[in-house]
Amino acid sequence: MVFGNAEGILVTTHGPGRLHLYTYGASGGLAGVYGSVSTSRRGVSHFMISHSYNYTKYAFFWDGAGKAECRVGAKPKRYPVGNNWRESAWVKWGETEISTLDVSPEYFAGAVGRENQVTCFLIPEDLSY
Question: Residue 63: its pLDDT value, please?
Answer without folding.
Answer: 96
